[in-house]
Amino acid sequence: MTTYAGIDLGTTNSAIASFNGADLQVYKSPEGHPVTPSVIYYDRRGTAQYAGARAYSQLPLSPESCARTFKRFIGTSTPIKVPAAGLTLTPEQCSAQILEKLYAYLPEEIRNASDGGTVITVPAAFNQMQKDATLAAAEAAGIGRVALMQEPVAAVMSVMRVRNADGIFLVYDFGGGTLDVAIAQSISGRVSLLDHGGVAMCGGADFDRAILDNVVKPWLFESFKLPENFVTDPKYSRLLRIANHASEQAKIDLSGRLEAMISEGEETIRTTDLAGAEIYLSVPIERGIYNRLIEAKIQESVAATREVIARANLQPQDIERIVFVGGPTQCAQMRDRVITELGIAGNTDVNPMTAVAEGAALFAESIDWSTANRSRKSNRGTVSGGTSIGVAFNYQARTPDVKAKVVAVVRGRPLPGSSFQIDSLDSGWSSGKVALADNAALALPLSKLGDNRFKVFVFDPSGGPISLAQSAITITKTAATIDAIPASHSVGVAAKDRAGGQVALEYLVKAGDPLPKKGQLKFRAEESLKAGGPNAIRLELWEGEIKDPYTDNRPIGHIKITGSDFEHGVIAAQAELICDYEMSDSGAIAMSITVPSIGATINPGHNFYSRQDAQINYADAAEIVRDGSESVLARVDKMSQTVSDPRIDEARAKAEEARASADSPDPAVAKESMDKLLEAKALLAKARSGHLAALREIELAEEIQFFETDAKQYATPTEVSAFDRMSKAARNCLTATSDEFERHRSEMGAMSFRILWRQDHFIIELFRYWGTQEHRAGDKAQHAMLMRQGEAAVQKGDIDELRKIVRQLRRISISTADESDLIAQVNILRG
Question: How many C-beta atoms lie closer than 10 Å to residue 642's C-beta?
Fold first, then answer.
């Protein structure tokens, strides 16, 4: 019997389960626990000594030897540092250690089986980079056949196994690092996921940080003589790690008590203050204070849940119950708070700690692991009696129902008196003889979960058996069957409407589209690419639905065709690029690009899909956060001078929160700040759509002023006339509901840029500007090399070479909405 595995790779705790079609098993750690802490302990030589409970127990004793909460940074370039071991790891490397630990819990026969597979869950809020990095971690862990599944979907599967009842329910999965919300409707065991969503940085780890920042740090300042910047002083890093662990323990204690003590002795902390006094922790905290500290995160989770309910076109009264999943939801007070806010009854049908792993194992059974794209098994089957008698039987191959339908298909007219019979090979049930006719149907009782085996018999008019080419039917009774899963994000490819024209997103999938989804998009090359040449054709991937500017969306990597990807010929300008893609149940994307002009299909491979250019190191993102905050606030100020909209005020609040946190040494705070800036940009886009005419008037005036002040003096008379025509065309579109205004404005900006691009001083100014943007470079070493090459080009007066270097500097930098894409990031055209 084939056995499948499911892994919940969590921020705080992880779990693994298996399912063989009938029996579900959660595997316990060597310490006998159903969950394994996502913590790794390294010795001084940098060897991972142990992961899980033993590593967690070392946190208060050797915090600088442990790695934890790394899942929050997977898919980024944020380093995970283990000072005592002298290690700097990637989040993927740490995740691989936990996956390897969990996978080892499985019996050897399951791990070595050739017909099974493993589903690893990811939060619904995970973007494409994070999913790609999770797959890389699984590969590094040596796990063979792997598929990803969104955590709320897995939780829904787990709920249906326990309580297979009709109705609409909501899964509220509040974990250590993320919030996932799913709304599902069950009808006769078949589940439709109506909508889902979540918040990437909202979990129990944020509760720990709230206690640390608002209770422990003030107590330390009052009790000891510490420098104002002690949180960034390496001398106190051990103290902060221990204090964070103690805060977590107090949080756990408060789930069952009215007060707790955040405590740790001098002998453990082993740190002195500026006066030489040994530092200890003995900080009381009451549940009332704790509840106030976590209120903002609870409200954020409730707001995200309400948003999912609204997207599903439901009201709270339409939902039967909330099913709570995740460690923090074990606290009754937290559950009661969410229940009260949403006005929906609560439910604890499933184990909140293992439900996701169990659901992942259940879902793994539904995957056809022989397929490269990990598609799901077919729900329909057929057996043929053979060409001699022209009879076949179609049946439900997979169903959660207690019965499955079988229908006879007869070509021609059967002899009068012919019959058929179906017997169960498991229970002894028999249908008895039934008259054979086209569309004759039987309902077969399914006696057990998993495979139910039957045999078909056909008889001639005299009752003699007729030999069949196939006679065996296997029907799988499933715990639940998930229908189409809605995509949690919109993902598009950036392309120009024409050479040098406006860039917009061509969508592979929109949020809410049913998954899996296959499709094809056609593009054209804007410039030529020769086999073996140094250039590249780039397809940028973005996540989000902001139209203008498209760079307000989240960059998630690029697909790049280089001259080394094909051996002969030239991809000429205007050559057709056919992009075939598939988005799986998990939201992971597989793509291939066919170039008919050279007769080549280029598949994902060595450097075909790259997320590195879009990754951010959140441990070194202070300047990026500060720049982004100031940029958004400047846009807020400009918009608020013209229109009044509560969404603008909300965007201001988010940007100010991000700016206030810019100098925090905690990479989790930096990541949360960047997420707030993305949310602020989305709010500004919505506000703009509500006041288009007024804001377009301002934008048009800015384009005209820029041309008049900076570009006109270098323009030819023909260019001046063309610009005037474009500005008049744009003015005529101020109130249009189409994107015509944006197209004309883009053309105006492109003309100003082209004029300035011819000027040597402008290229030098751009080069100097990019020299100040090292903090935005994905590769600091490459940035430094390009700056050296640029300085040499300036000294030689080689402006053409400097132009190439400016383009390269732009390409290795994280995008912002303040910069148009005129420096040739995107070089494909809509087909």
Answer: 12
Beta bridge mates, 824: none
Q: Yes or no: say if 611 and 557 are a contact pair by the CB < 8 Å rule.
A: yes
Q: Are residues 567 and 586 in the same domain?
A: yes
Q: Which amino acid is at 731?
A: R
Q: Helices marked H in 235-316 — which ranges? A: 237-254, 266-269, 287-311
Q: Cα separation of 221 and 109, whole Å?
A: 56
Which residue blocks in 666-816 are alpha helix, DSSP H?
A: 667-690, 692-706, 717-732, 740-757, 760-771, 780-796, 799-811
Calpha distance 457→450 (Å, rounded): 23
Residues 391 and 525 in one domain: no
What pLDDT does residue 300 have?
Answer: 93
- 579 and 472 within one domain: no
**Token pair for residue 264?**
């740790």
Question: Which residue range(s) make up the domain with 415?
Answer: 380-477
Question: Using CA atoms, how far apart are residues 74 and 134, in angstroms rounded to an integer?
Answer: 7
Report the length, in residues, of the chain: 831
pLDDT at position 605: 44
Say which amino acid occupies 542. W
Where among 557, 583, 614 does a domain terminate?
614
pLDDT value at position 400? Answer: 87
Q: Is residue 775 part of a domain?
A: no
Q: Where are the beta strands (DSSP E) in 155-233?
A: 167-174, 179-187, 190-199
Phi, psi of 59 (to 5 degrees): -55, -50
Same domain, 455 and 501: no
- φ, ψ for residue 472 (rounded to 5)? -95, 135
| Terminal alpha carbon distance of the chain | 49
Collapsed DSSP state (helix, strand, coil) of residue 661 = coil
- From the list 815, 824, 813, the residue with the least C-alpha distance to 779 is 813
Name the nearest CA neighbour of 618 among 666, 661, 660, 658: 666
Burial class (CB in 10 A: 0-12, 13-18, 19+), 1: exposed
CATH number (domain holding residue 602): 2.60.34.10
Domain's final residue, options 437, 456, 477: 477
Left (φ > 0), alpha (ψ -120 to 50) or beta: where does 729 sit?
A: alpha
Check residue 709 and report its DSSP letter. Answer: I
Residues 119 and 191 in one domain: yes
Strand partners, 119: 6, 147
User: CA 12 → CA 167, 179, 248, 280, 806, distances in Å?
Assistant: 32, 13, 11, 25, 43
Which DSSP string do the residues of 94-114 spell out, in sequence order?
HHHHHHHHHHTTS-HHHHT-S
User: Of 193, 177, 67, 191, which is closest to residue 126 (Cα–Cα)?
Assistant: 177
Residues 427, 549, single domain; the answer is: no
Q: Residue 119's pLDDT is what?
A: 96
Is 68 within a domain? yes
Contact 535, 566 (CB under 8 A): no
CA distance 18 to 118: 9
Q: How far apart are CA 211 and CA 581, in angstroms?
A: 46
pLDDT under 70 in the chain at which residues?
387-388, 603-614, 815-824
Q: Are strands 48-51 and 403-410 parallel, antiparallel or unpaired?
A: unpaired
HSE-up (13 A, CA, CB side) for residue 579: 30
State the helix-helix crossing angle for 128-140 and 91-103, rounded to 10 degrees.
50
Question: CA torsion sign, 681 to 683 to 689 to 692?
Answer: negative
pLDDT of residue 557: 78
Residue 765 half-sphere exposure, CB side, CA atoms within 13 Å? 8
**Domain containing 145 — which CATH number?**
3.30.420.40
Question: What distance in Å separates the CA atoms of residue 321 and residue 318, rounded to the nearest whole number?
Answer: 9
Q: Which H or E run contains 369?
A: none
Collapsing DSSP to helix, strand or coil, 487 comes out as coil
Of 699, 691, 676, the closest CA to residue 646 belongs to: 691
Mean pLDDT taken over the chain: 90
**Token pair 């590195």: residue:** 612
pLDDT tens column, 130-142: 888 999 999 999 9
pLDDT at 564: 84
